[in-house]
Amino acid sequence: MVDKVRWLGAVGTYFTKNRKGELTQSEIKLLLDYTISIWDLIEKIKTEGFLKQIREQELAEVGKRLFRIHNAVGSLQNVMMRYVTNVNDTSKVLKDSKGNEYAFEPETIMMPTLWGYVTHLELTVAILKEVFDIERINASLAKPISLRGRLTIDPVKKVLENYSGTDLFRDVDTELRNAISHYEFDFIRRGPNSLLIYRDCEMQLGDAMIASKKANILFTAVILTILHMKKVNPFLMM
């Protein structure tokens, strides 16, 4: 319990001081909530012998690679969010360093956000698979699910929720992820609003941006905590 409290303090301090302004106070709270969930999940999996054996150096290399992707996608995502104050604007004019102006439709600005959603969920699964023996965890369940060699976000989410009741994935919409991945979505206008339509669902573009930012924060909480609990300093990679 003491270790968890210290870690929560370290994460909170890092984002309020070292990365000040990157996350809002409500986003830092969400980050800490996710951190509690992944910490508790790791402790349970470790106690019950479902952690994979992976060397610190090997895990550190995996962490560096995933962080490079995260930073590349996250930077583009943050630029889009910084410029967009109202995604329902009919167009948004951005200027480059030379003062040239470019007009973008809301749909164009949304695409990096949607890609960011998928990417951060895939990165989250990637680091979970490095340290959790998902197949053995699934086999231990009273009612294992059929994996069929698929360890994407949907089966991994189901296995871990059935195993521990974790709420780590409470903000993950796998239908949205699948629709984006397979380009089974569309943009429509309804009055003053721009909407994302996918698989009999609809979402305000502003809500899609929030969902994407949450996926970013989820990945951050998961990888920071996994690396820390495996004795690798994650802050050196950010």
Describe the structure.
By secondary structure, the protein is mainly α. The chain has one domain (2-237). Helices cover 61% and strands 10% of the residues. The protein has a 3-stranded antiparallel sheet with strand order 3-4-5. It has a two-stranded antiparallel ribbon with strand order 1-2. Helix 1 (2-18) runs antiparallel to helix 2. The model has no long low-confidence stretch (mean pLDDT 87).
Task: Write a brief structural summary.
The chain is mainly alpha-helical and about 240 residues long.
Shape: globular
Major beta sheet summary: 3 strands, antiparallel
What's the helix count?
8
Question: What structural class do helix, strand and pairing data support?
Answer: mainly alpha
Rg calc: 19 Å
- First and last CA, distance: 26 Å
Stretches with pLDDT under 50, minimum 5 residues: none
How many domains?
Answer: 1
Question: What is the string of helix and strand elements?
Answer: HHHEEHHHHEEEH
What's the count of strands? 5
Looking across the biggest beta sheet, what order are the strands in? 3-4-5
Helix content percent band: 55-70%
Q: Return the average pLDDT rounded to an integer.
A: 87
The percentage of residues in β strands lies in: 5-15%
Topology:
Blueprint: H1 2-18, H2 25-47, H3 56-83, E1 92-95, E2 101-104, H4 106-131, H5 134-139, H6 153-164, H7 174-181, E3 185-190, E4 193-198, E5 201-204, H8 205-229
Helix pairs in contact: 1-2, 2-8, 3-4, 3-8, 4-7, 4-8
